[in-house]
Design brief:
The protein has 211 residues and is of the alpha+beta class. It is built from eight helices and four strands.
Length: 211
């Protein structure tokens, strides 16, 4: 069976720690393959229902998630860190819950369109900026700096954040994800089958190889 030009689809949001860990799992699975899978990224917006008209995150909006939910999530993240050997992760308690990934996803969409060969490095650098360095990836200066760090024009990326066409395309992508039945991230899709969550490398192998 040839693995050339094979693609795995990933729905993800940069503010999701499980998306970061899921990508680490995917990287470990990729290391076992003769030919790596290409990644087709689909953005997802975890903050959408809490974002006000001025772009602010309103935590008063009820989503059924209380502190016990978040503590359990943090504990699950710690377990996966250990399982996947991800040691260099920022203290989850110090990451503000109002960090918004919308602009980071706008920038990622721009890079994927205009500089596709640089997209994966930029995507990974955004995850690392938040989950390793604890930086606010909702800040335009941080996004531009991350872009520069992977060889992109930071000022060009900063200007892309105000592109209303791109912002509309991102909104459409979020709608499309919901219509596709995506209810949480990360979600990996291959060959009509899906795996949700930061699943281990062997689960991704079963998804792709069927064994």
């Amino acid at each position: 069976m040839s693995h050339d030009d094979e693609t795995i689809t990933i729905y993800s949001d940069y503010v999701c720690p499980f998306c970061y860990l899921g990508r680490k799992s995917l990287a470990q699975y990729q290391e076992t393959r003769d030919q790596p899978l290409d990644i087709e990224w689909h953005p997802f917006d975890l903050r959408r229902h809490k974002r006000g008209p001025d772009g602010e995150i309103d935590h008063a909006v009820e989503d059924g998630k209380d502190e016990s939910y978040f503590e359990q999530a943090r504990e699950n993240v710690r377990k996966l860190q250990s399982k996947y050997g991800v040691e260099e992760m920022h203290n989850l308690d110090d990451i503000p819950e109002d960090i918004d990934s919308f602009d980071a996803q706008v920038a990622s969409l721009y890079v994927r369109t205009e500089s596709p060969d640089s997209w994966l490095a930029f995507d990974e650098a955004l995850f690392e900026a938040l989950w390793v360095d604890g930086r606010d990836i909702g800040d335009a200066d941080v996004i531009a700096d991350v872009a520069t760090s992977v060889g992109l024009d930071g000022e060009e990326i900063r200007l892309s954040l105000d592109d209303e066409i791109l912002r509309g395309q991102l909104d459409d992508a979020f709608e499309n994800a919901q219509q596709a039945g995506i209810t949480g991230v990360p979600t990996f899709v291959y060959g009509g089958h899906a795996a949700r969550g930061a699943v281990p490398p062997e689960h991704l192998k079963r998804l792709v190889d069927g064994s």
